[in-house]
Structures are given as C-alpha cells and as structure tokens.
Write a structure and sequence with these properties.
Helix content: 25-40%
Number of helices: 27
Shape: flat
Structural class: alpha+beta
Radius of gyration: 35 Å
Largest sheet: 7 strands, mixed
Distance between the termini: 70 Å
C-alpha cells in the first residue's frame, strides 16, 4: 500500500502499488458501500479519464492471497482431485517427472508442473476421469552431501525439504491427488525396489561381476556410463577415473531388441528423443575382422560396418580401456609414458593418441600396420578396437594428419578419379568404385561391402555379425542414502538373497556420514553383521545401495495403488490407469530415465503383472527457463524465487506468464515486465465481472444485430482455438492469445441502458466463456469469479468444457480483395453467401475497377471464396 487520499466527495481512497503499477479503489469497500457507485460519483466531480471504470481493478495483492488460500483449502477439504477407477468414464493419466526434494521449487519446476496441471484440469472439464499424482525422488548423493555440510541426518534433511516442496506445490494450486503422495526413501516404497531386485536375481537379470568402472572420487561411488558427462560426474562435476571393483549389474541387454523395436510404437514422442534412444541402444550390422598382433599372434577382433574399406586400413586403434592394452604395452621402451597417457585420456576426451610400438597383421593382405591407443575409440562400441581408414572416415583422417600416419585411397571419387592422398583436404565418405582392393577392384562400394564380408567369412578371417552399443546397467553405489541391495554373503553358502518375508532391509538410522572411506554402511557393524538365512552361520550384508534411477524406473506404477502394503501394485488399478496418457519432463532424461522405465515395464510384463509394452503413450519435453540468456542457476546468481512472485501478484499470474511466454518445448526467457502484463490482464478479467457483469434471465429467441453476431463469433472462435491449443501440441500461448482477443472484444461491447436484457445476456455468456477457458490456466481467480457470477458451490472443474457452434463462426459480411494482373485494385465488403455470378456482376460494375480494366478483354476471372478475386486481362 502506498497510502490514503481523501477525495472531494468525502470518501477515502486507498492507493495500491501492485506491482510497479498504481491502482485506486474505495477504502471503504467491504463496509457496505458499492464501489461502482463511488466510481460514478468520482466521474461527476471530474478527475479520472472516461475509461476509468476499466482501470479500477480491485484484484489486489491482499485479495489474491485470500482467494488463493480459500480455494486451495476448498480443493483440499473437498478432495476435488482424488481419483478412483470409474468404468463409466474415459481415464486420463497425466504425470510429470517427479522432483528431487531440494527444498524450494525453482522456475523449472514451476514450468513443468504448471503444464501438467493445465492438461489435468482441461481433461477433467472434458469429462475424463483424471489421475494426477505427485511424489519425490528422495534418495541420492545430494542428501548425503547436505548432511555433511549442515551436520544433519540425510533423512531429516530430505523430509524437511519434502515438507517445503509440498507447501509450495499447494501454493501453486496444482491439482494433485495428495492421497497418493509417495517418497522413494520411505521403507514402504523401497521394499519393493528390493523385491524387484530379487525377482531379477531369480531370472538371471541381476548379477555381480568385476570390471573397470567409472569412479567419482568426490562422491566415492561408481557411475553408470550415462552418468559420466564429458568425463565428469553428472552430479558433482568431479573428474571421473577408472577403478576395478566387483559390482551389481542389471541385464538390460536381454531386452535390447524389444527396446529398439518398440520405439516404432511411440508415435507421440518427440522425434529427437526417439533418435537419442535409437543411438544409445545402437544396433549395427557389419563384420568382425580377425586382426592379430604381429609378435604374439594374439587375436585382435575389430568390428566394422565398412567392410568395403578394409584394403585401405593403415593402422589399428584401441580404446584406452581395451583388455589387451595392458599386455601390449608391457615391456615397451616407453611403457611409463603409455601408462600416464592412458590415465590422462580416461578422464578427458581430447582426440589424443599414442603408438604402442606394436603392429597388427591385416588378414586380407597380410600388411603390418601400427597399433595405436586413442581416446576417440570407445570401449562401449563394437570390440573397443577399430581399423582406421583415414581416406574414407573423417575422424581417422584428422587423427592420421595429426600424427603423420599413412593413408591409402580405396574408393574412387567419381567426380575426381585422379585424386591423390596428398591433395585431400578431408575424407571422401561418398560412394564410388573400389580401387587397390585386389579382386574387388571396380565394384561399386555398396555392392562390394556385402561381397567382401561373405568372402572374409568364407576364408575364416572375419564373421558377419551385429553389435549393440547398449551395455548392462551398473546399479551399485557406495553410499548410504539409497535402497540397500538385499543380498547376504556367507562363507559357506555364497551369495544368499534376503528372503522376501524379511523385506524391507531398512537403512540404519543416525549413522555417521563423513564423505570419506567409501560406503557409510560398511562402517556400521549392526547393519553389516548378520546370520545367513540358509545356514544361520555368521555372514555379512551387501553394503552397496542401488542407483536412484532404479527408484524412478517404476514409480508411475506405484501411484496406481500408492500405499498397498501387500503387493508392489494392484494389477486391476494398473490395468485401469496405465499406460500414462501424457508424460512431461526434461530432455535431459531422454536416455537415462526413459530407457530404464521402458526396461522395467517389459520386465513386469514378463512377470505377468502388466499387459502393455510401453509405459508412456505421449511424451512432452519442456524447455528450460532462462534469465539474461542463461539457464537459471544459483551459482550464476540469476534465479527468480517463485515465492516472491506469488507474494507480489499471485500464483495465477505466474502460471499465466509461464504458459504465455513460449511454447512448452521452447526455452523460456524470464521477463519481469511480462509478469506485470499477465497480472494486468487478470485484473481486466476481474474488472469485467466486478463492474459489468449483472445477472439477467436468458432472453428467448434473441435477434442479433451485427455487433452481437461479431461478439458471438469471437466467443465461438475462442472456444475453438483454445480447445485445439489445449489438445493438439499443447499450444498454451496461442490459446491464451485467443482468450485475450475475446476479452478485447468484450471490453468494447456496448450495453445500452435501455437494453431488453439481450445484450447483457450475450455479454454475460461471453464473460462466462472467458472464465471457463482460463480456468485450467488460472484456477484460483476463475473459481472465485465463477462462484460470484453463478453462485455455484462446486468447483469449476466439474463444469463441462464449452463447445463451439460452427455456424456462428461464419461471417455475414466478408472482405474480398480484388487483383487485376496481380496488382491490388480494390476491396469490397460483401455478403458471405454471395454467389460467384453476383460477385462478378458487382465488381465489374464498380467504376474504379472499370478504370483499371480500360475495356480490355478479360481472359480469366478467378474467385477464391470469401477471400480474393483475381482478374487477368
């Protein structure tokens, strides 16, 4: 509040500044005075401009807080959004990727969850039985880091953060079924993680093996390949090193064919997500060629999809992690340098390489070619070894140029058949005929690819095969705050699964976490020391916990019967609600989370628990929220606190801005002035109801004048545009724009004092349509205004979504543009149902048209209905 001012008419005015704008309203409002009466008296005494009534907006910060709290309380007590199966209504399951409980929500959360909430509310009004749950991805390393930093317990920190986030979600008015709320750190949830693990162990899908793993020295935990981003830990950004450990894996590779093939069924997923999954699974057909090391004769298999270039191979390159590297460099004069090089490049990829001093024999021509180690070859693809053909592969070309390695052309460029290696500025990767390839010379390389492969297989120097990029999923983590892996080690019995009736294996409480020395569970004797379930002898528990992606790979199924203590989920509930109709989340989860969720769903189908193949029918990946061109980040100091925005102008204003500023898939640039614009628009809507809406009986059989018809047309057009915008591609910004156009039309609509009630009725109908169309987007203000207009006691979500009349979209009068020889020569307002003959007669009779025609013969008279006439003379 700025202050009070006593006007000449004797009424005190309260001047508000909300936000950056000044509005005036009678301070005596609420004590029995009619604000509209005071406005009229203000006008008679002079002062404000004639449009003052539209500028008096009693939708102030104090009212916003009261209204939003009122309706949030109503939804909570009425259980408006509580969902249960109903065979008489179509179901709609809308779900956003659940958050990690970091305490306060950020604008990324606001955008993701507002999009989902609008979809949920829209579908409710369309008559769908909507499930819209929420939970928390609560396990993970950040909680342990916070516990160390704040000298607290990870559980205390996590659940305090959950309480904060829950309060903020409620402030935003999200339509969650709170009875289904879950947290993955609850024993009642993670016991089913353990149950899934045991089922996978039974079927040979969970296994333990020793291998070189990605190790984060700061987090002191292993990382899956997907969690290593440019050589760094995806969580803390520390440099990742290689370490040999015994670890637990899940055999996701057993499902690689169906994971790849079923991508074809996902017609409503973004194309780039499909492409990312295809590339990650990475099916390749080619030849495994048996090179051998010159001195030892050790086999060195190389996989290639380009058998047509085998005669051009001039060196072999191994990944730094290749199992033969240790043997090859042992005893080499520069062994120390090679070891240092391997350690360095295992952290970063800089396109570096080093010669081993060893040679391989190319089996097709018995040439000796050098063996190199380089970081551009990945152990995850093929055999971890490649044959390098620098003239026909750009990566090999650049590497060979850098290290002065030999090159040989084996595919002739048809446009430059005399091309020499010395003249090449880049690799030739197009098609041509083979040269320097013995009996295959002259063949088109596409044809030669298959013939060479068959020849190598026949000669026993290669094998036609397929390779997959996908590797089994490493799930072991050396941390406390995660699901304990339900396995016991016994000297007599070996690896013993924890019996199902002993689940959950709970985390010990109040454990000391220092961030040093690996898994905190290993330092807890009361957890580690147990009896073997088989022989009752002394044994020890597994002290690794599960990767948090395990938790999030099936939570969408748990929501269907969130607190069922007797089974992982109710099959009937899952049968009714699943699959998820609309899933919403960030593109950063396109590989990790989505691939694992698809894997789990297929596993559950094999167990007979579900009947569907894919968990998410539709996927929307929303863009990030930026400020000053950069992603909002605390480290960059460019964050905007949603609480501050809500405190100034309400959750509805924030929701409106976040949806209007950009399409969901695009990045959104934060704009303070646009926030103000959203608040001003809602104030205009409020003012329409408060100042101009007066209930009248519906007039029977009204006769519309042209202004009435235009209002009705704009009302129906808004319904059409908003419905399409909500349904097709979630074009919320264009939907909101359509409502704004309708509001402008309503604002200009005149209601004479002596009206029979017809015009007031049409006005009211249009305003009601605005409120219904906006209600999924700005639910609090729309609930309040709908109640004030109609006296309804129930939530506006129970009101059917408005439908439009196609006939009302037709204009009585349309404007026809006339062109003569392609140049604009006139515009005519005509009846929309005018015939082509009548239109021709009218246009040709026009004096100005006759002047342009100059009595020349008309060759063509083309009519584009209701738009254009083109005359060619």
């Amino acid at each position: 509040m700025v202050g009070f001012f006593r006007g000449s008419w004797g009424i005190t005015i309260e001047i508000m500044d909300i936000p950056h704008l000044i509005f005036i309203r009678p301070a005596a409002e609420g004590r029995g005075l009619d604000p509209r009466a005071n406005i009229k008296k203000f006008r008679r005494t002079g002062g404000p401009p004639e449009d003052y009534e539209r500028k008096v907006m009693p939708y102030t910060a104090s009212e916003i807080k009261i209204i939003e709290a009122k309706w949030q309380k109503y939804w909570r007590e009425d259980k408006t959004f509580q969902a249960s199966p109903d065979k008489n209504r179509p179901k709609y399951y809308v779900l956003e990727m659940f958050p990690y409980p970091s305490g306060k929500i950020h604008m990324g959360h606001v955008r993701n969850y507002t999009i989902a909430d609008v979809i949920a509310r829209f579908r409710m009004m369309q008559g769908f039985n909507v499930l819209h749950p929420i939970g928390y991805d609560a396990f993970g390393q950040p909680a342990e880091n916070a516990a160390i930093k704040h000298k607290t317990d990870p559980a205390q920190w996590t659940y305090r953060c959950i309480d904060q986030m829950r309060d903020e979600f409620k402030k935003m008015g999200f339509s969650y079924d709170w009875d289904r709320e879950i947290a993955t750190s609850d024993p009642e949830y993670y016991r089913w993680n353990q149950w899934i693990f045991l089922k996978m162990l039974e079927r040979g899908l969970a296994y333990k093996k020793g291998s070189s793993v990605n190790w984060c020295p700061d987090c002191e935990t292993t990382l899956a390949n997907e969690e290593v981003i440019q050589g760094q830990c995806w969580r803390c950004k520390s440099e990742v090193v290689q370490k040999d450990l015994e670890q637990w894996y899940l055999k996701i590779t057993d499902y690689r064919e169906s994971l790849l093939e079923d991508l074809k069924k996902l017609n409503h997923w973004p194309a780039r997500v499909i492409a990312m999954q295809e590339n990650w699974i990475g099916q390749s057909y080619g030849v495994e060629i048996y090179f051998r090391e010159k001195d030892t004769g050790e086999s060195l298999p190389v996989f290639t999809t380009r058998a047509d270039t085998i005669f051009g191979a001039t060196y072999v390159v191994l990944a730094p992690e290749h199992p033969l590297v240790g043997k090859l460099i042992r005893g080499a004069p520069h062994e120390g340098e090679l070891v240092s090089f391997i350690k360095r490049v295992s952290k970063f990829s800089k396109k570096e390489g080093m010669f081993t001093g060893r040679y391989a024999i190319n089996p097709v021509n018995n040439e000796e070619i050098p063996i190199w180690i380089a970081d551009y070859v990945l152990m995850e693809y093929g055999t971890g070894a490649i044959m390098a053909v620098p003239t026909h592969d750009q990566r090999d070309f650049l590497f060979a140029r850098e290290h002065h390695l030999p090159m040989r052309i084996v595919i002739q460029d048809p446009q430059d058949p005399q091309l020499k290696v010395s003249d090449m500025r880049q690799a030739f990767e197009d098609n041509g005929r083979l040269v320097h390839s013995k009996q295959f010379d002259g063949l088109p390389n596409g044809e030669a690819k298959g013939k060479i492969a068959e020849w190598m297989e026949k000669e026993g120097i290669g094998k036609i095969t397929e390779h997959w990029r996908l590797r089994d999923w490493l799930i072991s983590r050396q941390r406390y705050w995660g699901t304990p892996i339900p396995v016991i080690y016994c000297e007599a019995c070996g690896v013993v699964p924890v019996p199902e009736n002993q689940l959950p294996v709970e985390l010990p409480k109040n454990i000391a976490i220092t961030g040093q020395g690996g898994s905190p569970l290993a330092q807890c004797p009361q957890f580690v020391q147990v009896k073997c379930p088989k022989c009752q002898g002394d044994a020890r528990r597994e002290t690794d916990t599960m990767a948090t992606f395990f938790d999030s790979s099936w939570y969408y199924l748990r929501y269907c019967s969130a607190h069922d203590s007797s089974r992982i989920f109710d099959k009937d509930g899952v049968g009714y609600w699943m699959p998820v109709d609309q899933y919403i989340g960030g593109i950063e989860h396109a590989i990790l989370h989505l691939l694992y969720s698809r894997f789990f769903t297929k596993f559950f189908k094999d167990l007979g628990l579900v009947t569907f193949e894919e968990p998410f029918s539709r996927l929307l990946t929303q863009g990030m929220v930026l400020k000053d061109g950069e992603v909002m980040s605390k480290s960059k100091g460019n964050t905007v606190d949603p609480d501050e925005v809500i405190g100034k102008c309400g959750a509805d204003t924030l929701r409106l801005f976040i949806l209007f500023a950009a399409p969901p898939e695009d990045q959104l640039e934060w704009n303070d002035s646009a926030i103000d614009g959203s608040w001003r628009f809602l104030s205009r809507v409020w003012s329409l109801v408060e100042n101009r809406y007066h209930p009248v009986a519906d007039p029977a059989g009204p006769i519309y004048d042209q202004e009435d018809k235009e209002l009705e047309r704009e009302r129906n057009l808004a319904i059409k545009r908003v419905t399409e915008g909500m349904s097709e591609g979630f074009k919320f910004n264009t939907a909101i724009s359509a409502v704004m156009i309708l509001v402008n039309k309503i604002d200009k609509y005149q209601i004479p004092d002596d009206s029979s009630g017809i015009k007031q009725g049409l006005f009211n109908k249009a305003v009601q349509t605005v409120i219904l169309l906006l209600s999924p987007i700005t639910p609090h203000i729309c609930e309040e205004l709908w109640q004030r207009m109609t006296g309804a006691k129930a939530s506006i979500t129970s009101v059917p979504w408005p439908t439009y009349d196609s006939a009302a979209l037709e204009k009585d009068i349309v404007q026809i543009v006339v062109q003569i020889n392609g140049k604009l020569r006139g515009k005519f307002d005509v009846a929309s149902d005018i015939s082509d003959d009548q239109l021709r007669e009218m246009i040709l009779a026009d004096e100005k048209v006759q002047e342009y025609l100059q009595k020349r013969a008309i060759k063509k008279f083309i009519v584009v209905p209701k738009k254009l006439v083109s005359i060619v003379v």
